[in-house]
Design brief:
Number of helices: 10
Order of helices and strands: EEEEEEHEHHEHHHHHHH
Distance between the termini: 48 Å
Strand content: 5-15%
Oligomer: single chain
Helix content: 40-55%
Strand order of the largest sheet: 1-6-2-5-7-8
Radius of gyration: 20 Å
C-alpha cells in the first residue's frame, strides 16, 4: 500500500511590529521546519554561517560545504538546509511577502533591478565567495537593529544581492512551476515521497498512483515541471545524500552506495563521478586534505 504524504503549504506570519519575518537558529535552538519539502508565496533568504548540508530547491539537489547563502523565489518548493548546527554555526532565515512594501513599491525606477533579481530567484539562486561572506554578515547584523533600521538595511541587502556577480542559478535548465495550487500540491507530494523513500527501489507505477495519474501522464507532468525525468531526479537526490555521507559519516563507500538506494556499486561510482566530477574515493580524500 502506498503511503500518501500531504503536500505542505507553509503559512508565514511576520513578527509583531514588522513587515517581514526574521529568524536565527543555532545549536541550542535549531530550525524545526527542515524535514519536509514545502512552499509559500514569501521570498526566502537563507544564510548559513558555516557547516554543510543539502540544498533541495525545486528539482535541484546538491550538497554544500562551508556555509551557504540562498535566495528562493515565491512558491518555489524547497526543503530545509540544516539538520543540525554545532556551537559555531548559525542559520538566519528572512521571509518576505512580495508585496510587503505595497503593491506598487517595486514598480518605481529605483527598484527595477531588484525586480529582475526576484524574478530570477523563482529558479533559486546560491551566492558564492566574497559575495556570500559580505552579504551574510549584513544579514546577521539585522538582528541588532531597530525595526525601522532593519527595514532600511534589508533594502540595502537586496541591492547587494542584485549587484553580486558570483552566483549560480539552481534550476536554470528547468522548473517551470507556476502558482497553480494543484501543481504545487502534486510536486510537493512527489518530492516529500522521494525524500522518505529514496533508499529503496521506486517504480513509476507507484509514484504515478500516488498522484492519481497514469504513468505516461505523470512522466510528461514531471518532465514539464522539473526539466528532468523522475529517474534522473531520484538518482540526483541519492547522489547528494551520498556526498553528505562521505563528508559526515565514517562508512565504507560500498555501504554508502547501498545506503543511498543504489544496488550496483559500479553504476554508483559512474553516476557519482558524473554528478560531482570526482570518484567517491577521490571526493572523500579531498575532503580529508581540506579538513587537515
Amino acid at each position: 500500500m502506498i503511503k500518501s504524504q500531504k503536500a505542505v503549504f507553509e503559512k508565514v506570519e511576520p513578527q509583531f511590529g514588522s513587515s517581514f519575518k526574521y529568524q536565527t537558529f543555532d545549536h541550542s535552538s535549531p530550525n524545526k521546519n527542515n524535514n519536509f519539502w514545502h512552499y509559500h508565496p514569501e521570498i526566502e533568504l537563507v544564510y548559513i554561517s558555516s557547516g554543510s548540508g543539502k540544498r533541495q530547491i525545486g528539482s535541484h539537489v546538491s550538497y554544500y560545504r562551508q556555509g551557504d547563502l540562498i535566495l528562493i523565489g515565491s512558491n518555489l518548493p524547497h526543503c530545509g538546509f540544516t539538520t543540525k548546527l554545532n556551537r559555531y554555526e548559525r542559520e538566519t532565515v528572512i521571509q518576505i511577502h512580495p508585496d510587503f512594501l505595497g503593491e506598487t513599491f517595486f514598480n518605481i525606477p529605483e527598484t527595477k533591478n531588484i525586480v529582475t533579481l526576484l524574478e530570477t530567484a523563482k529558479k533559486g539562486i546560491v551566492f558564492h565567495g566574497e559575495d556570500k561572506r559580505y552579504i551574510g554578515e549584513k544579514i546577521e547584523e539585522l538582528k541588532h537593529r531597530s525595526p525601522f533600521g532593519r527595514l532600511v538595511a534589508l533594502l540595502e541587502i537586496f541591492k547587494h544581492l542584485e549587484e553580486a556577480r558570483n552566483y549560480t542559478i539552481l534550476n536554470a535548465q528547468g522548473f517551470v512551476l507556476e502558482t497553480e495550487l494543484q501543481d504545487n500540491n502534486r510536486i510537493n507530494q512527489i518530492f516529500n515521497f522521494v525524500k522518505e523513500e529514496f533508499k529503496r527501489t521506486i517504480v513509476l507505477e507507484e509514484v504515478a498512483e500516488l498522484t492519481s495519474m497514469t504513468v505516461p501522464a505523470f512522466c510528461r507532468f514531471f518532465k514539464k515541471i522539473t526539466g528532468k525525468t523522475f529517474t534522473q531526479f531520484v538518482n540526483e537526490y541519492r547522489l547528494a545524500h551520498a556526498a553528505k555521507l562521505l563528508h559526515e559519516e565514517q562508512m565504507s563507500i560500498t555501504d554508502i552506495c547501498f545506503e543511498c538506494g543504489f544496488n550496483n556499486f559500479s553504476h554508483f561510482n559512474k553516476q557519482f563521478k558524473k554528478f560531482t566530477g570526482k570518484s567517491p574515493s577521490k571526493y572523500r580524500n579531498e575532503l580529508r586534505v581540506n579538513i587537515s
